Every structure is written in structure tokens, then in C-alpha cells.
Amino acid sequence: MRTVPAKPYDFELKPDKAALLIIDMQRDFVEPGGFGEAIGNDVSQLRGSIPPLIALLAAARQSGLFVMHTREGHKPDLSDLHETKRVRGKADMTIGDEGPMGRILIIGEPGHDIIPELYPIAGEPVIDKPGKGAFYNTELTDLVAGHGIEQLLVCGVTTEVCVHTTVREANDRGIECLVLSDCTASYFPEFHETALRMVAAQGGIFGWVSDSASVIAALKSPELTEPAVPAAS
Fold it and tell me: The domain that contains 127 carries what CATH number?
């Protein structure tokens, strides 16, 4: 195990049983000119998470940590889209409509894809999810079980929506979650801060909160093992 300073108390990282989960770092949400900006959001609030995430992803890959990515989106025929989600918000543009980067939140469209700075490499699963949580109607449960994952290092956007929902889902499945404060972000900074406090409240009711520098340092530190028991004389 490797100790990561965190709130509400230190997180004991088990690299061989942990995975980095990067949530919804998609062009339509994060890039200027995408759907997020088109409906009035300030994407600069999200882009600050990219540099620390780049550094963390590089360290994770170098250390051999299992890495997974998610994308929120739907099939082109919208057969996996609930009507309540499609109409929510009463916006001029909605899921499936033509947007600045193709059809909004549709698998295969340019805006649906992950930003180039964090693009997956071979061996890193990309989980297409139709909901906010990464476990709902996806293969994530099987991936976690198949790789013996007990801990998730959770990053991505937005903190109070897809990140928070996924952490809650994982918590109910007995998976420990460490949320990285500088690798998550929201269009609304006050929501980001409140969401992080909620994770670590009440002794870590949903998980732990730390930062990328602390995790990178832990990944580079020697593995801590239990001391050997002296042989009986």
C-alpha cells in the first residue's frame, strides 16, 4: 500500500487493485465552441482540470495503473435515451440535435469524443454511458470485477453531476473512491467545492478527497508491505 494524504483521513492506495477513472472529458463539454458553451456555460471553469489530469494520466500509465475513460452519449437512433432526459431544461438545442460539433451527445459525433490531450491509448477501455453514473447500463461493473478493482481514483466533469453520481454508485458497490480535487471541475465553482465537501463529510460518507500531486507522489514511492514475521527460535 501507498499512503495518499487526503480528507477526511489518509487514503491507503493499493495500486494493484486500483484504477484511474476519467469521466466525460469530452469535446462538447470542455472545448470552446462545443455544446456546453453553446448553451451558456463558461468552459474555462472546466479547462483548469486538464493540465493536472495530463500529469496524472502520464504517471498512471508509467506506473502501470489500470486506466478507464467514460463518455456520456446515446445511440444515433436515440433508443437508449429516456424522454425525460431529452426534454429536460427546455433548451433550444437538445440531445440528438445538430450542434456546433455534430449531433449533440451522439456516439460517433466529433463533440462526443474525448479531448485530444487526454485521448485513450490501446488497452484503456472507453465506456459509453447513457446516464450520469458510469455504472448505469454499462460494462463498468464487469470491468471492475474482471480486473479485481477495489479502488477508483475518480477524475473528470462535472464534479456535482457525473462524478458525484459515479462515486455514489461505486460506494454502494463497496468500492473505495478517491476524488481528485484539481482533476475534477464544474461550470459552477461553488458546486464543485460543495460536491467535494459532501464526498468527505461525516468521516468520508462517499469517499476521500485529495489532489493529483499527492497521488503522483504515491505512485512514484516504494510499495509498502507488511513487515516480515520473525521465525520462531
Answer: 3.40.50.850
